[in-house]
Design a protein that fits this description.
Layout lengths: L1 E4 L8 H16 L13 H4 L4 H18 L6 H10 L3 E5 L12 H13 L6 E3 L6 H6 L4 E4 L2 H9 L3 E5 L13 E4 L2 H11 L1
Parallel strand pairs: 1-2, 1-4, 2-3, 4-5, 5-6
Amino acid sequence: MKIGIDLDGVVIDSETTFRTYEEIYDIDVLKENNLINAEEPKFQARYNWSLDQQKDFTNRYFVKVAKESNIMSGFVGVYTRLKEQGHKFIVITARGLTPDGKFMKEMEDNARELLNKNGIVFDKYYWKQKDKLDVCLEENIDVMIDDDWRIIKKLSDNGIKTLYFRDTNLKKLEETDYICEVNNWGEIYRKIKSYS
């Protein structure tokens, strides 16, 4: 089986770290309450920040978050078992893309360093992928694991099975034949085994 996989919020716990620094930035730096939708996975939609504020947040915290983040609990064990069973993993990630569409290579480098340190080598990598549909179709992905409900919705609407790795406060989606909510790597393992 070909498994498409996002990095942030799925393999690396950076989304939780991002949300922490988003709150610090909004409260301590901007000294405001700009939170408009806590169900949104990305800060661009969670807060009513100007583009300049988004860029400032990116400059202050992107690399800091990358350096503080770790591999998600349970990932290494499940990944190792699935690889031993012959499954292929294709990374499809927007990691390092800034709000203005630029790419921070240091974010990619940091992810590669963290993965290498943990002995994780994926079969293929697609970086800078804001819209993941084309890569999923091109790679003939059997199931995509992502934590962004918009991506999950778009892929499922186009006939791609998805595992929605949903953090507690993110938007809930109705489960269908193409959308299954998961909250940890044990649930992901169970679901992938049911597809095999």
